[in-house]
Amino acid sequence: MALTDREEQEFWDFVTARRRSLIRTAYLLSGDPHAAEDYVQEALLRVYHNWRRIERLDQPEAYARKVVVNLVNSWWRLVLKRKTYAISELSDRPYPTDDYAAVERSDELWRAMLKLPPGMRTMLVLRYYEGLTEAETAAILSKSLGTVKSQSARGLARMRNLLNPVDHSPDMPTPQNELAYQKAHTGGATNASTR
Questions:
Q1: Residue 62's Cα: distance from chain center in Å?
Q2: Of 58, 113, 115, 178, which one is least surrounded by beta carbons within 10 A?
């Protein structure tokens, strides 16, 4: 059944107000600006077909965002099933005085995001880029609040490791080899106050 003129106008007002935000979400999840536009176009088509139902619930944005997330995650499942990876290697880190350091750091951040599993990336995008609460993220992903909290924490930890890898070479002291390190560099004597 076709939408009334009023419903049609409400839909287009929604598209005008929320399209950019949905594209940003799709881009952050997929890493591809062209695919992001396609995902949003498909999501908006689905929103249009279900407009009466979702408008009555007064949640068109949540519905549209969930459709975008599901479309992108479906694509990632297909890609991962085929074991095809289109991720290039990280570029060299910029010098701190480089005028383009912020842009390169942003690029490095997104390359690291693309190395995360799709579910973890989705969690971080919704929580920290879209600014959704844990409860809103849980509702969109149909996950428990505890899952959102733990996956967000794991995702942030993984991002820290990807962006700042820890050198575990024998020359670097770690909690596991601190005593051996001290012995090797002090001729066998250790200082109890440094443990």
A1: 17
A2: 58
